[in-house]
Amino acid sequence: LSPNSGHWDTHSWWFHASEVGVVGTMSPAGAVSNSAIANGICASARRTWLLVSCCSIWHVNSFDIDSPNTPIGMIKERVSELASHLPGNVFSSRFGSEPETYCTPTLLSRYPGGWPKELDMGVYWLGRGDAMAKASNGEASTFYNPTRRTIIYFHGWTGSGDGWTRICKRLTSRCPAEVCREDAHPLLMEQWLDDGWNVGFFYWDQFADEDCTRDAEQKIWFDRDGHGFRWKSHDVGSGLTTIQVLKEKTNSLGDLCADHIGTVMGSFSGTQVRFIGHSIGAQLAVRCAALLHMRGHPAAPQRLTMLEPYFSKHHLWIFRCKELETANGLGDFTALATAEYVLRLWQKHNVVTEIYKSSAMTEHKMLGLINKKLDAMSILVKYEPNFCGSFGVGNFALKMLNEVDIMHLSCRHMAVFPMYFLSYGQPSPPVKPAMMVGESQPGSALRNCTTPSASCSDGQVQQWMQRQLAVEGRQRWVQIAGSDSLGSDDDTFQLRPDFNDEAELDPGGTANLLVMRAAKSNAELYDETHKLAWWRDVHSPVYRVAAVAALVAGLGFLAVAALGSCRPARHLGRNNISNRDSESDSPG
Question: Distance between CA atoms of 320 and 318, rounded to whole angstroms?
């Protein structure tokens, strides 16, 4: 610590740290220190080293500090391993047994219309066994019934590696290669389909296939340059990939999404709609939902699920950007706009929002914007997918390094996608310390949804949302067990603040009582969510009374106007008669 500035003297730290083996073979140091992300990681490593060295200061003479069996030695080994991945693209286009290309006749036949050469944006309805069919209109089809509950998933950025369009890659209902790296890729939607849900995937991959995440992200909100929206086209026959521009005039991809879903779900009459978005796709889900609610569409969702919602600020080299730019970013516009939409949807339409996080992408400021405003007005659940790989969880110092783990970033960022969908149909994970549910009513969030998951009803999620606002945005669930497996059957979470902590802060127990009463049914919430203002709802009694009153007033006005217009005509008629009589009496 510099005695003059009160800040870390990084040059001095590197010198002394190398002596005790914290940095070890982390070289070249210049390449790391010139990266903003590397600086953030190294700062975390410095803090870890300081804590460990302080805790171990009384034992430095009793063991070899460079030994891999010591905390310092383990940090040295892990940080050195991490350094071998910097700089470079942490989002590789291929993982494990993933093929070099997916462009086979069998796969291309799944997407009619000439994809990936031709633009193919919109909803595909899924069936059992990873079958699918493109949505064309609002009528019932093989995999879509307008009277059933419906979920629609929005994927994120597709520009990793050399881009997904070039290799004909699309997410499906199978566990993705980034997470399930073995030959087995389990199906994720079977339980949903068995329970009668419509399951849709909204594909916008050709628009999302940009070198830089930021360039794909801004299309969700506006056409920044006014030159139209770019999309990738790939001719499988020639192997040529080109950039095309959308000819259709539109304000944003959010508008295109609302137009499309408004059409393919035009006859929807079910009682539940849930939008689920991953990474920057979460922004598209929110904006699309807001536009559908503004239009009063029956398919506007009453529940938003945001999986690892990502908000960029600058071009970063880890996202294949050609160079690091810090002056031309979107700033915090997308983060604030998304938070504002979520707030308005809650205030005006009772739409609940839940957030599930699983990587440093959404938790470390050097990788993206941390949207604290959005976190505070949503349900927040944090997973620790250590099955992706980790620095270790048994040691406090190594656990701190997991918070900035970019070696397994792609897996950790994507892991929440299969984890969420596989949790449907499973009991809600328990929390520790356990909460007393004796006084809670059947169907309440406290009794049946101790940790929010895909299985929780919308009414139960709404109750946790109300508690989150009551505790001023401090509520969150953090995974403390079960992090070594993909399934949720061994998961355990810790609720913060728990019921005892909140009881001390609020002796009246107002916040805790919110999750103890019986939750509303999905049908009740759907009616609340889609309740229109009386002047827009033709079935509202107020609307009918106002309409009748307006009709009577209009008829009365017309009657008065008609009477008033007839009087001059009668006088005019008498004058004409008098004139004719005068003319007949006059001498010829």
Answer: 6
